[in-house]
Design goal:
- The chain is an alpha+beta fold and 178 residues long.
- It has a single domain, classed as Nuclear Transport Factor 2, Chain: A (Roll), CATH 3.10.450.50.
- It is 29% helix and 29% strand.
- It has 4 helices and 8 strands, in the order αααβββαβββββ.
- Strands 1, 2, 3, 4, 5, 6, 7 and 8 form an 8-stranded mixed sheet that branches.
- The longest helix has 17 residues.
- The protein is globular and about 40 Å long.
- Keywords: Signal.
């Protein structure tokens, strides 16, 4: 009595599980535009800009901070702090971007940002971030992973290099005296 129904249900589930889903391709230009919107938010300290960043619901943002050229920490030691999680949902990522940018008085000088779409679909963005309250200038590299079906950022892994770039980077930022 129930056997035909169970067989029909199993065959349907088997067919549905083996049928490839149609995936939308996420263009490189869309990915780069998403990363540029994040930089626009750091520059503006504005929730309106943050809300324009295409993030998945469970987007995360984590940073690894290294200090290599500080006098108390020789480069050979490769000192690194534990990873710092600065957002575990789309809302907390936006809140962190605006909040930290405001508290640190952060900025990204025009022309210091560059973007590369990698062969695995991630986007690497490199930029100089000025934090007038902490360090005068640091190099930041972020690797953005995307949900290819929605073209939204799902994960941001950032590396903050404690090298003080200052005048050497050509942005006229005086070096920090330690």
């Amino acid at each position: 009595m129930y056997l035909p129904t169970i067989i029909a249900l199993l065959s349907y589930l088997t067919f549905a599980a083996t049928t490839p889903s149609k995936r939308q391709s996420c263009a490189a230009e869309q990915k780069i535009a998403a990363c540029k919107q994040e930089i626009a938010t750091i520059r503006s300290h504005n929730f309106e800009d943050a809300n324009k960043i295409p993030l998945t619901l469970l987007a995360s943002r984590t940073f690894i901070i290294t200090y290599g050229n500080l006098p108390v920490l020789p480069a050979e030691l490769g000192f690194q702090l534990p990873p710092v999680n600065v957002g575990v949902t789309d809302s907390t990522v936006c809140l962190e971007l605006v909040g930290l940018a405001t508290v640190l008085d952060a900025g990204v000088p025009e022309g210091s940002d560059s973007y590369i779409v990698n062969s695995n679909g991630t986007v690497t963005s490199d930029f100089i971030q000025t934090d007038r309250l902490v360090l005068q200038a640091v190099h930041v590299r972020e690797i953005h992973e995307f949900d290819e079906s929605t073209c939204r950022i799902s994960k941001i892994l950032g590396y903050v290099n404690g090298s003080l770039l200052g005048r050497e980077a050509g942005f006229g930022i005086p070096p920090l005296d330690l």
